[in-house]
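My current task is to audit a protein record that another person submitted. I have pasted the whole thing underneath without changing anything:
***
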Amino acid sequence: MTLDLTPDQLLTTTRTVRKRLDLSRPVPLEVVKECIEVAVQAPSGSNRQTWHWMVVTDAEKRAAIGEYYRLAVEQYLASEGAAGKLHADDPERGPVQRRVGDSVAYLGERMGQVPVLVIPCLKVSKLPAGNQSGTWGSILPAAWSYCLAARARGLGTAWTTLHMVYEQEIQELLGLPEDIRQSVLLPTAYYTGDTFKPAPRQSLDEVIHIDAF
């Protein structure tokens, strides 16, 4: 069963969910597989389809990834670029950023309790020294499609890459070969409540440039 959402509603209400992830409700593996089946319809460079999807349900492995994530979040929150410290003097954006920072800290303490952790990966023998947009463009659209498919099925996800601070440790934990590269981490769970709405964004006049910057 999927929610009755128009394409625009789906695209504008698929939010990063942290505090509202239901940590007590199991997520059927079949539903996760449905989401991935939708996700792999996304484009990939030269149609190579060299993606692999790590779906982590084992409690001990989730807890281990959660601990690495907690350590990474600690470092992130202490950095100057932490979400909660940005736009501190802006009366409109400042409070939003502080709420984001609070929710990052919340998930940092609970990542290992999320029922399913999904890590979309890409088979890459060597990362190019120059332009990598083609490389990561072969997995990130599929990762976002997974988030949309999850939303349509009443699941919440969070888009984060902070686990990459401990990329090698997680690589070994999951037994990933050296040429299988992790991308984002997508904690997946049913969410509490039933409403999502478009988030505040900059005006189009601030971000659109026609023919020249």
Notes: The mean pLDDT is 94. The beta strands are 51-56, 116-123, 155-157, 180-182, 186-190. The chain has eight helices and five strands.
